[in-house]
Design goal:
CATH architecture of one domain: 2-Layer Sandwich
Strand content: 25-35%
Number of strands: 23
CATH superfamily of one domain: ATPase, nucleotide binding domain
CATH class of one domain: Alpha Beta
Radius of gyration: 25 Å
Shape: globular
Number of helices: 9
Length: about 425
């Protein structure tokens, strides 16, 4: 907490009714500091809201008749302004505006993941499907009289077009048009932009000092510069505004490498080689690195991730059922949750279909083997990405003598690694500036 003027009186308050238009905060503790003879009141707050902690100062103008607070919980006055800050987080203005030093987003073909540093020092993450259908003109869920649950989605405006993104975006749509973009130029699409700003919106961030993004290895040279230029500045994306001071773009698998090494740095020194395989939704990327030095000749990527397995399973089910199956999003969900896939109300066990889809996976593994060659000097293979569980068996068969580690929480590993990279880079810059 900030230092308190000894002339100010300190009053603890357990609850707070904030003025209209001010986002509700769940206060861990609240104090009113009031100085006799002064016409303003300063309120200092140590507040914890989901994943964020910061100090808040509210200034109130007292009316002539407003008495000094005499009891716990007593407060009067007119709302004037809010300013709050905590270490790397800073915020200021009327309302909740949160500034963060580093924010990381991994906009994948399958899911959009984001990461930032929580007050406890741990890494907080969030994730939602990378679906950005056009927003509905009306939402019936808001008229259900508490029977229908309101979906957690946001309407993001890109080029005057409204897109719907979020955890509860629909996984199904008429004729399979779910709003998912699967193409090599995905990062240049409105869908990508809508998903990126959706992540910023759900995190509640409006000012980013350094934004970390990742790209598939084989698209780095083509799109990294464009991403840096496109997302540096101040943007109004519909439900809010955000200022991004600097954008850093790195190869996606490096995020997983950094995340894997976070608590075992001795195993990832410059003399230790590792192969990181990132199985995404639409692409599979791999990075061969000595420590954190990437070997460009043995690092690459290709179209062919988890989605091609889902598509193959859909084709096989369609042949058995005599009807085309288009709900690949639900096949994805059923496999991840280890549940049956329902087709016309009938449960279908996907395990036999996954086994029949192995040739699709084997083709990708063979391409990796041809590129990296023998791994006689590699300490391990780090397997990451949402499709990691699908590919693990084939990769073990392809590299039988190399230790294979499926990274913890593979879906969010890249975003966590991006964050660590961004924090380290910012720390170096700040240290250099002080030198």
């Amino acid at each position: 907490m900030p230092s308190i003027d000894p002339d100010w009186r300190h009053f603890p308050v357990k609850s707070w009714a904030e003025p209209v238009g001010f986002r509700r905060l769940d206060f861990a503790s609240l104090w009113i500091d009031w100085k006799p003879g002064r016409t303003d009141r300063k309120v200092s707050v140590l507040s914890i809201v989901p994943a964020h902690r910061y100090e808040l100062t509210l200034k109130y103008q007292l009316s002539d008749r407003s008495p000094a607070p005499r009891a716990e919980g007593e407060s009067t006055g007119t709302y004037l302004s809010a300013n709050y800050h905590f270490d790397a987080w800073t915020t200021s203005v009327n309302g909740v505006i949160l500034k963060t030093s580093v924010f990381a987003i991994d906009v994948g073909y399958g899911n959009t993941k984001y990461a930032h540093r929580a007050a406890s020092g741990t890494i907080a993450t969030g994730m939602f499907p990378s679906l950005a259908p056009l927003a509905a003109s009306h939402a019936l869920s808001g008229y259900g009289d508490s029977v229908l649950t309101t979906r957690k989605v946001a309407t993001i405006v890109i080029d005057q077009i409204e897109y719907e993104v979020g955890p509860d975006v629909s996984l199904t749509a008429a004729y399979g048009n779910t709003g998912r973009a699967l193409s090599n130029d995905f990062v240049a699409s409105n869908n990508y932009e809508a998903l990126l700003f959706g992540a910023i919106h759900f995190a509640g961030v409006t000012h980013v000092e350094r934004l970390l993004l990742g790209l598939p290895v084989h698209t780095m040279s083509k799109y990294s510069g464009a991403l840096r230029d496109q997302f540096t500045g101040t943007f109004d994306y519909g439900p809010g505004r955000v200022t991004i001071e600097k954008v850093v773009v790195i190869p996606q698998p490096l995020g997983s490498l950094v995340a894997a090494s976070a608590n075992r740095q001795s195993e990832f020194g410059r003399d230790n080689a590792h192969l990181v395989i990132d199985v995404g939704y639409f692409t599979t990327d791999w990075v061969y690195a000595n420590g954190f030095t990437m070997d460009d000749k043995r690092s690459n990527g290709m179209p062919g991730g988890a989605s091609q397995v889902y598509q193959r399973i859909a084709e096989l089910i369609g042949k058995d059922q005599g009807e085309k199956v288009e709900d690949v999003e639900l096949i994805d969900k059923a496999l991840r949750e280890k549940k049956p896939f329902f087709f016309y109300g009938q449960p279908i066990n996907l395990d036999p279909y996954l086994e029949k889809s192995q040739p699709v996976i084997t083709g990708v593994v063979e391409e990796i083997k041809n590129n990296v060659g023998p791994l006689t000097s590699a300490r391990s293979i780090v397997l990451s990405g949402g499709g990691a569980p699908l590919y693990a068996s084939a990769i073990r068969k392809g590299f039988p003598r190399v230790a294979i580690e499926v990274i913890e929480a593979p879906c969010t590993a890249n975003a966590k690694g991006f964050l660590i990279v961004g924090e380290a880079g910012l720390a170096r810059e700040r240290a250099a500036a002080k030198a």
